[in-house]
Design a protein that fits this description.
6-stranded parallel sheet; alpha/beta; 566 residues; 21% strand; Urease, subunit C, domain 1; 3 domains; TIM Barrel
Length: 566
Amino acid sequence: MYDFIIKGGTVVDGTGTKPKLSDVGIKDGQIVDVGKISGQATRIFNADGLMVTPGWVDIHTHYDGQASWDPLMSPSSWHGVTTAVMGNCGVGFAPAHTHQREWMIELMEGVEDIPGAVLSEGVKWEWESFPEYMNAMARIPRIMDIGTQIPHGALRVFVMGERGANREAATLEDMKAMAALAKEAVSKGALGFTSSRTAVHRTKQGEAVPSLGAASQELITIAKAIGETGKGVLQLITDWDDLDYEFKLVEDLVSSSGRPLSYSLLQHDFLPERWQEVLRRTESARKGGLDIKAQVACRGIGMIHGLECSMHPFFLAPSYKAISYLSVSERVREMRNPQLRARILREAAVPLDNRRLDSITQHFHKYFPIYDRADYEPLPEDSVAGIAELRKLPPAEVAYDMMLDDEGRQKFYFPLYNYTHNNLDAVLEMMSHPAALLGLGDAGAHCGYICDASYPTYLIKHWARERTRGKRLPIEFLVHAQTQRNAKALGMLDRGVLRVGMKADINIIDFDQLDLSIPMVLNDLPAGGRRLVQKAKGYVSTIINGEVVMEQGEATGALPGQLVRA
């Protein structure tokens, strides 16, 4: 007697093999049969005409705070995610002494754009040490499985206090203390250790994160200690500004610890071919026996701009800042004043010292209005610059006036990375590389300007079905890439495949109907906090640990999620 039988679906089993018609039998949270099944079941799903896949394994999220207050883990649960891994990029909420909590909130507010009021009200502090944090996460009922990693920034400040926050050099004793705590965390179940080496990550006060510029010996000491456990992974983000130094560090971390490492890989407009050199070095290192992988996105790393969001082309203009505290409707009314319009346009045109910020505010050739659907591979003529050229008007003026449309609710897509050449060909090459892991959706973070938690759905619908501007990818490759491949990379060998003995984490999908809403703003976080989300359709059912948790886009109330320990 089975708990469930999924009958007659097109099974894409997660191994990369071609789809085939099959039944799937589930009992006691596990897959117990795959093939032609004639037995009895408490419930039978008719999957005729539907696609049956493993649940998505999202290895790059920032649910570190949200996991303590949101049992539904949205929006990831809307997009077929059954396992989410947090603690990435060296930021998180543990370990943390009681007196450091406010600093931790400010760090996450700056780096991950999660409002401080949301975190102050939402995070339920029941820990100081990292094992205590994991135990607290394990006690909370939730819809999906989660795994966590120990973040370098929090670890450094926990050990070094203000010296760590101020990026002072760690002493040998500091390094040994950090290494011991990281080793303990992984021994007790943390999936790995993560670090940030990018100047883009800043605290709320604009200060660099504690781990930026940390000495190689500090990271190697921590990595070696983790290696002694025989478990855990390493993850980092870096700007690769000194490519020789940074890649040598990556190689040293892997060779000294014996543990796998993955890094974030992006195409920057300023050095648009550097990602290829990073991949070439990765190939060479892998041939030498080093387990190094690249975490890549399935589309541009895209900001959503508009008056409801954290950013738009004029958000740094002094005359706009003077009214930025007003409601959206009040700002629209003020911004329609011709005198204020002229001042804001004039101020915004002054180049900024920060080239990244300058590109975000004034690169109108990459600024695409969003209408009835979100197009993540738009044409140049669809941009504000393209529209302005047709209208024979300055692009900034066109952007300004469009921003006031729909009473200030008009939004724009700005692909910050991975869209230098106005197509996703670079992304295709990254995703197709044998060292690639698919992630970087940052679910749970960037509440006011990034809406990439929908990556798992977009990956399938765009690359297997919709793409018209170049090569598509086989559905079996795409499913494998965000199920078995991701799970294995983090040592989770019990999921990601529809095989006997594996966890019953399963999506039943109407492939032809799989789609995304346009990005929308919800004020549903603690303290009334705002966030950008995208909803999905086409997910008929999602099953986690053998329980149906989502049906037709609605939560069933089942909360079978568990903490995944290394």
